[in-house]
Amino acid sequence: MPGFTSPPNPKEFNARVWQIARQIPPGRVLAYGQLGTAIAPPGMTLKDYDAFRARWVGGAMAVCPQDVPWWWVVNAQGKISPRPGAERQRALLEAEGVEFSSSGKIDLLKYGWTPPVARSA
Fold first, then answer.
1. pLDDT digit string (tens) for 64-92?
2. What is the DSSP annotation of the chain?
3. Domain boundaries, the chain
4. In CATH, which of 2.60.120.560, 2.40.40.20, 3.30.1300.10, 1.10.10.10 is domain 10-111?
């Protein structure tokens, strides 16, 4: 497997991530990797893309513009990834009616959103 450190065209990839994140309805969430499935593999095999998509989406969300609802994207376990701003993310989600279990998980079946299906590259 090639050792990709970033998407072949990071600017284009990030813009696509942000476009999809803006479509998530309030009170719903999407996991990083799930968001990546809505983007066609950028110049690589699906197998290679699967190994990197969640990380690349996370990188895009870390530098998103202010108009992108970053708090709607969570990790694959339905949790908020520990980092600066995690408390604010939880508060924003709770204000939209998202509930957390006692272990800090969001029920992805209840609050998850299904992104549009990507077209193959």
1. 999 999 999 999 999 999 988 899 999 99
2. ----SS-SSHHHHHHHHHHHHTTSPTT-BEEHHHHHHTS--SSS-HHHHHHHHHHHHHHHHHT--TTS-GGGEE-TTSSPPSSTTHHHHHHHHHHTT--B-TTS-B-HHHHB-PPPPPPP-
3. 10-111
4. 1.10.10.10
**Residue 70 and residue 17 in contact, taking contact as beta carbons nearer than 8 Å:** no
Q: Which of 100, 32, 108 is nearest to 64 (CA)?
A: 32
Q: What is the pLDDT of residues 111-121, one digit of tens each?
A: 999 987 765 54
Cβ neighbour number for residue 22 with a 10 Å cutoff:
13
What single letter denotes the amino acid at residue 93?
A: L
Quote the CA–CA distance of 58 and 117 in Å, as a whole number: 19
